[in-house]
């Protein structure tokens, strides 16, 4: 599902790019040019996201024992950087035109074409964010958020350019492009910061960790308790690690049965989680290790 979503983003981005380039060529508007320029970034980002999603789905191998999940975060960081680069290019064009603004030609046809491209982006952005979140895909979510900023950009461009045409204030066109650039920089930073958290082995959400502690406590019967719970999230994969204290004379088979029960309960809450449970004899707790989560 995630791979198909990433793949479909490429032709959709190309269609929207063609529409926005046509709108810019018809009008000569720097604001519409800025919108088209951001869509070029969409095409590059969609291609990078597809490549990252495919790579991240590769199984673990001799050189990557924990899989290739973090490739999606690399793609998302790249997309954030591209968003910022697009904003800088837009700002340069806007500043060049702000001293000698010109009214766009055939504005209403250009705005209608641009609006149609924006509608396509809006529908696809909501799809990517919803399904990317459902399947824990940072690259797909980042692509959706990027498209969402493109939708906001298109709305701002359409409203602003319509005002410029109706009022005769040609300077609104480049000023609007500058506002678009600032908004894009902000969204680019959000994408980068979110992805860097994933690369830095961010833990599960605090609320999920609290629920996880409850599940472990409810299914650890027979043990003397657990401690040192650690979690990390890498794209669609979640890694959970903790120590379980067992009575000194408990057999390996009995301790293993408790671990199986814990793993089944945890995977019902976090499907596909990779779980590592270290079993300690009671004496470890007596030597200063507190038996707690």
UniProtKB/TrEMBL annotation:
<dbReference type="GO" id="GO:0015086">
    <property type="term" value="F:cadmium ion transmembrane transporter activity"/>
</dbReference>
<feature type="transmembrane region" description="Helical">
    <location>
        <begin position="30"/>
        <end position="53"/>
    </location>
</feature>
<feature type="transmembrane region" description="Helical">
    <location>
        <begin position="111"/>
        <end position="131"/>
    </location>
</feature>
<feature type="domain" description="Cation efflux protein transmembrane">
    <location>
        <begin position="7"/>
        <end position="200"/>
    </location>
</feature>
<comment type="similarity">
    <text>Belongs to the cation diffusion facilitator (CDF) transporter (TC 2.A.4) family.</text>
</comment>
<feature type="transmembrane region" description="Helical">
    <location>
        <begin position="73"/>
        <end position="91"/>
    </location>
</feature>
<dbReference type="InterPro" id="IPR027470">
    <property type="entry name" value="Cation_efflux_CTD"/>
</dbReference>
<feature type="transmembrane region" description="Helical">
    <location>
        <begin position="5"/>
        <end position="24"/>
    </location>
</feature>
<dbReference type="GO" id="GO:0015093">
    <property type="term" value="F:ferrous iron transmembrane transporter activity"/>
</dbReference>
<dbReference type="GO" id="GO:0006882">
    <property type="term" value="P:intracellular zinc ion homeostasis"/>
</dbReference>
<dbReference type="Pfam" id="PF01545">
    <property type="entry name" value="Cation_efflux"/>
</dbReference>
<dbReference type="GO" id="GO:0015341">
    <property type="term" value="F:zinc efflux antiporter activity"/>
</dbReference>
<dbReference type="GO" id="GO:0005886">
    <property type="term" value="C:plasma membrane"/>
</dbReference>
<feature type="domain" description="Cation efflux protein cytoplasmic">
    <location>
        <begin position="206"/>
        <end position="281"/>
    </location>
</feature>
<dbReference type="InterPro" id="IPR050291">
    <property type="entry name" value="CDF_Transporter"/>
</dbReference>
<keyword id="KW-1133">Transmembrane helix</keyword>
<keyword id="KW-0813">Transport</keyword>
<keyword id="KW-0472">Membrane</keyword>
<dbReference type="Pfam" id="PF16916">
    <property type="entry name" value="ZT_dimer"/>
</dbReference>
<dbReference type="InterPro" id="IPR027469">
    <property type="entry name" value="Cation_efflux_TMD_sf"/>
</dbReference>
<feature type="transmembrane region" description="Helical">
    <location>
        <begin position="151"/>
        <end position="169"/>
    </location>
</feature>
<dbReference type="InterPro" id="IPR036837">
    <property type="entry name" value="Cation_efflux_CTD_sf"/>
</dbReference>
<keyword id="KW-0812">Transmembrane</keyword>
<protein>
    <submittedName>
        <fullName>Cation transporter</fullName>
    </submittedName>
</protein>
<dbReference type="InterPro" id="IPR002524">
    <property type="entry name" value="Cation_efflux"/>
</dbReference>
<dbReference type="InterPro" id="IPR058533">
    <property type="entry name" value="Cation_efflux_TM"/>
</dbReference>
């Amino acid at each position: 599902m995630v791979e198909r979503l990433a793949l479909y983003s490429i032709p959709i981005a190309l269609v929207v790019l063609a529409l926005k380039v046509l709108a810019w060529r018809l009008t000569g508007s720097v604001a519409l040019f800025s919108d088209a320029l951001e869509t070029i970034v969409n095409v590059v980002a969609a291609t990078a996201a597809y490549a990252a999603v495919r790579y991240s789905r590769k199984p673990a191998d001799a050189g990557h024992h924990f899989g290739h999940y973090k490739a999606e975060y690399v793609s998302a960081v790249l997309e954030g950087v591209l968003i910022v680069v697009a904003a800088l290019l837009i700002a340069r064009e806007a500043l060049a035109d702000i001293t000698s603004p010109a009214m766009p030609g055939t504005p209403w046809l250009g705005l209608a074409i641009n609006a149609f491209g924006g509608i396509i982006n809006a529908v696809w952005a909501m799809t990517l964010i919803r399904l990317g979140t459902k399947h824990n895909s940072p690259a797909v979510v980042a692509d959706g958020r990027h498209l969402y900023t493109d939708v906001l950009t298109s709305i701002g461009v359409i409203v602003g350019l319509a005002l410029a045409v109706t009022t005769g204030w040609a300077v609104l066109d480049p000023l609007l492009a500058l506002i678009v650039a600032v908004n894009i920089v902000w969204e680019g930073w959000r994408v980068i910061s979110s992805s860097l958290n994933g690369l830095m082995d961010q833990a599960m959400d605090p609320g999920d960790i609290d629920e996880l502690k409850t599940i472990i406590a409810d299914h650890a019967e027979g043990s003397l308790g657990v401690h040192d719970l650690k979690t990390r999230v890498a794209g669609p994969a979640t890694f959970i690690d903790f120590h379980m204290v067992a009575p000194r004379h408990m057999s390996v088979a009995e301790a293993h049965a408790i671990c199986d029960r814990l793993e089944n309960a945890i995977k019902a809450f976090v499907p596909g989680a990779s779980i590592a449970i270290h079993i300690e004899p009671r004496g470890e707790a007596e030597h200063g290790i507190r038996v707690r989560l």
